[in-house]
Amino acid sequence: MMLCVIMTYFSVGRGRITARIYLLQYGVHADPDSRIRMNFRLRDSTVDDCKDIARMLMELAEYEKVTDLVKIGQKDLEQDGFSNTPFFRGVIAEVPEDQKSKDGHVKVGYALYFFSYSSWKGRCVYLEDLYVMPEFRGKGIGKALMSKVAQLGLEVGCTQMNFIVLNWNKSSLEFYTRQGCIDITEKLGYHWMSCGENALKKLANSDPVDES
């Protein structure tokens, strides 16, 4: 397992992705809360997964109480992830048909990631989203998704995995700490900054000599 770092101090630029990797990972994990064994597989996402990614993305936003911040949907994911210059990659967690969700879904979790660069550490992988539907949590799927992204990062020479976590999400913070991750905000006092669309346009059109 690679050392993962919670980076909260830089604005993320999404780089050009020029290749796709198609991998499958199968797992059988015991549910600690029951005698049911959960079968699932991990695979690279395809354009056909965008509808389910959009669904789970909104579920994640609802969990994080930020649905008003979500401005993209299925079509954006199709364009941004599966065009000639994709901005992200994904991993999908699937269960067999006989273990589908109460709403009939077999795609029950996902991770979105992309490659970035650190002027101190070199190649990095950024974990944008990690989500497992509530009824499938506690079965090893989340850890398997995170592990797969770590593997994919190592395969292309990444030295760390970066992501952000809401400060009230204690269960996630504890989970990531158990994986060997450290909280950069807590340890070093860095803050993650973001320049939104309006500010970005203003900055792009600003007078370079105006320091006000």
Automatic annotation (TrEMBL):
Protein name as it appears in the record: Spermidine/spermine N1-acetyltransferase family member 2a, tandem duplicate 1
Organism field: Cynoglossus semilaevis
Boundaries of every N-acetyltransferase domain copy: 58-205
Keyword Acyltransferase in annotation: yes
Keywords: Acyltransferase, Transferase
GO molecular function, one term: N-acetyltransferase activity
Family: Belongs to the acetyltransferase family.
